[in-house]
UniProtKB/TrEMBL annotation:
Family indicated by similarity: Belongs to the ROK (NagC/XylR) family.
PANTHER family named among the record's database cross-references: N-ACETYLMANNOSAMINE KINASE, ROK (REPRESSOR, ORF, KINASE) FAMILY
Domain of life, source organism: Bacteria
Entry's transmembrane regions: none
Organism the protein comes from: Streptomyces fragilis
Name the UniProt record assigns to this protein: ROK family protein
Length: 319
């Protein structure tokens, strides 16, 4: 359990869960979007659904054991998707034991009947960045995570718009190459298959880059090589940036966003990714109303899912 330097009195707290394929994180979050206390467990993603739920219950139990729990007014869940907000269920691609799993109901029971809101992880990132991050002053934004996958959420008209089932803004499965490789989603040439971390690392290796002895061959290592000028590493990030530019421009043409906020582990490469992305964007954002589109780094970092789940609990997400 990790506290802030100064914990508040407890007024206006909500509990938040951030469910992903590698970890289940929990937090108490105040009305200003500050994370007060954290808990987490590894996600037993290869196990059955009950085992995964037991891990989530342990995280929530850590929060319930705190004296501050008495001030908690609601619970928000941000989950890997797909999600179904209407049914309160989740079917994360990377948690096979949960298919149509009634997560909202299970959490409500564990939380003593408190109100529970469920959103997808992409919408959670959008909610976090719009509340306290890089989209704070924007009414129309796309907020993205580029990591082991590519996801996102939309802010339109000053509100987070998760869509009918909660999956709107799922930019990772926009096709940017009609003749590209098949995607596990069933499509072809999806931006996720070109811009996610493992795809960048694979592309660099195919073109001659090799990790240092003892290295894992990660996208972070490719980024370091790109900073040193390795041509295959530079080209791998350029390709990813171009794919992201095409997808972002498509979203801008459809819903007139004014800013694209990009976070996640791959975005930590900084200008290695952002420079080719911004350079490529004018090739795709050619319509007059898309030309002023800005691309900026996310600000909420690894807490984005928790802050966004809290935003949903506080009614800052439509639907």
């Amino acid at each position: 359990m990790t506290p802030m330097d100064t914990a508040p009195s407890g007024a206006g707290l909500v509990a938040a869960l951030d469910v992903g394929g590698t970890k289940i994180a929990g937090a108490l979050v105040d009305a200003d979007g500050r994370v007060v206390l954290r808990a987490r467990r590894p996600t037993p993603a290869a196990e059955d659904g009950a085992t995964v739920m037991a891990a989530a219950a342990e995280v929530l139990g850590d929060l319930r054991d705190l004296p501050l729990w008495a001030a908690v007014q609601a619970v928000g869940i941000g989950s890997a998707g797909p999600v179904d907000r209407a049914a309160g269920s989740v079917s994360p691609v990377n948690i096979p034991g949960w298919r149509g799993y009634p997560l909202r109901e299970r959490v409500r029971d564990l939380a003593g009947g408190l109100p529970v809101q469920l959103i997808g992880d992409g919408a959670a990132v959008a909610a976090a960045e719009h509340w306290v991050g890089a989209a704070r002053n924007s009414s129309h934004a796309l907020c993205m995570v580029v990591s082991t996958g590519v996801g996102g959420g939309l802010v339109l008209g000053g509100r987070v718009r998760p869509g009918r089932t909660g999956n709107a803004g799922h930019i990772g499965h926009i096709s940017v190459d009609l003749d590209g490789d098949p995607c596990p989603c069933g499509g072809r040439g999806c931006v996720e298959g070109l811009a996610r971390g493992p795809a960048i690392a694979r592309r660099a290796r195919e073109n001659g880059w090799r990790p240092e002895p003892g290295g894992e061959g990660s996208a972070a290592e490719v980024a370091a090589a790109a900073r040193d000028g390795h041509p295959a590493a530079v080209a791998a990030f350029a390709r990813a940036g171009r794919a992201l530019a095409a997808a972002i421009a498509a979203v801008a043409a459809l819903v007139e966003i004014e800013v694209a906020v990009v976070g996640g582990g791959v975005a930590e490469a900084g200008e290695v990714l952002f420079a080719p992305l911004r350079r490529s964007l004018p090739e795709y954002a050619t319509l007059a109303f898309t030309r002023g589109l800005r691309v900026v780094p996310a600000l909420t970092g690894p807490d984005a899912g928790l802050i966004g789940a809290a935003a949903a609990a506080l009614g800052r997400v439509d639907g």
